[in-house]
Amino acid sequence: MHPVSVPCRARARRTRGSIYLTTLATAALLSSIGMAALVTARIETRRRSLSAQTNQAAALAEAGIDLALHEIAADPDFRTNILHGQWQPDLPLKPGLVRWQLLDGDSDAASDGDLADDTTEPFRVLSWGLTGDAVQKRVVVVDVDGSQLQIRPGSWAKAVD
């Protein structure tokens, strides 16, 4: 018996086809790796941007506390001129904006909602810093000592809803 031989043409076609499939599979694999690298780089860039915006918003919120303290120190009638929980007009500051409000009492539980009823009662300043997609909130308790306003030591905090 003679071995059956495959014609040269058919063998060449199969070889060309397998080279084509190998090349195609390699190209698809390299494209997938490249796309994954691009997506990873884009996510990392977005994370860094959000981190920077969060830091800027925190700085704006802290500046809002300072701004509020400056404004109420300049207004001897602030307890009657500013209502408990009333947001003051937004103040644009680069790179975002600041808003603040006064809250009666040194906690929600101690609040009767009336800043004007007791001029010796502590109050809170709540400030929001907003920039880009980031919002940061800060709160501080202010004690009243005669005509002096004193930030209660250790009362600076991130505000939570």
Outline the secondary-structure elements.
Layout: H1 8-73, H2 78-81, E1 91-93, E2 96-104, E3 123-131, E4 134-145, E5 148-151, E6 157-158
Antiparallel strand pairs: 1-2, 2-3, 3-4, 4-5, 4-6
Outline:
This protein is of the alpha+beta class.
The counted number of beta strands is 6
The biggest beta sheet reads:
6 strands, antiparallel
What integer is the average pLDDT?
Answer: 87
Distance between the termini: 90 Å
Which regions have little confidence, pLDDT < 50, spanning 5+ residues?
Answer: none
Summarize the amount of helix as a percent range. Answer: 40-55%
Structural class: alpha+beta
User: What is the tally of helical segments?
Assistant: 2
Nearest-angstrom radius of gyration? 33 Å
Bulk shape: rod-shaped
* Secondary-structure element pattern, one letter each: HHEEEEEE
Beta-strand proportion: 15-25%
Care to describe what's here?
It is built from two helices and six strands, in the order ααββββββ. By secondary structure, the chain is an alpha+beta fold. The chain has a domain of 106 residues. The longest helix has 66 residues.
Question: Which descriptors apply to this entry?
Answer:
161 residues, alpha+beta, 6-stranded antiparallel beta sheet, 2 helices, rod-shaped
